Amino acid sequence: MKKFSYSFLASTSFFYWRILWGIGLLGLSACEKVIDIDLKDSESKIVIEGNVSDQEDTHYVYISKTVPFSASGTYNPVQQAVVDITESVSDSMIIVGGIGLKTERTFAEVSPGVYQVTHFKAYPGRTYTLHVKVGDEEYTASSTMPMPVMIDSIGTVTDDFFGDDGKTVGVVYQDPPGVKNYYRYLVTLNGKPTNLVFAYNDKYNDGKQVQRNLYHEDLDLKKDDAVMVEQLGVDEAVYRYFNGIQSNNPGAAAPANPVSNFSNGALGYFSAHTVSQAATIIQ
Fold first, then answer.
1. Which Pfam families does the UniProt entry name for this protein (predicted)?
2. pLDDT tens track for 51-64
3. What DSSP element (H or E) covers 128?
């Protein structure tokens, strides 16, 4: 699974001030000198990626730290964290001694920075809270799993792009009326998961039958490609996170980090979601 890591690396104004200062010194000297630009590394931040779904009973949490500008590596796993998940059920669903039922499980570290819990089934309508402790710092995120929305059909969508036929995949589903729904899509191409981000809400199609065409400039589909789509039903906070990634302009001078649902300044997200899958061969 692809990880994300975000870090604001250096102060732009500081960077340009040092350049101008160095050029000034160079102009005053008759001999050549090396201009030493002192780039400041940003503070390392915790990045947490956690998911539980209604289709699996084994779930994973990935914990790392952002990598400083001067570092040579790209992934910095966090080991020996304490990771727990709590399930809360409202009083209207299950009552135990007059209090909503709560269960708690602990994740085990199965490889550096990768934490796993097994035999843990998650259910729609319940709220899950992930607790992560790294040293003396604690991070918490909650996610409520929505009711599932199933894919009704899947197929090839062909459009004309400047005289050339472009192909993508489309799914059809019935959006529930009167309920705010948020969707995230995962696309697997010829058995290989892509890292493309698709996030949508039902603001303009509440209660309607929807055909969602998954267009992306990096999704280059050809005839006979095998495509699997997973439609995830997510809550609003998780939608905002992935919509933030989707909306970031790669050409921006300082793209913003997507809004995390974790406390205490951690980056990343925790999602409790439903899953509906469908597969097709591109025609």
1. DUF4249
2. 999 999 999 999 99
3. strand 127-134
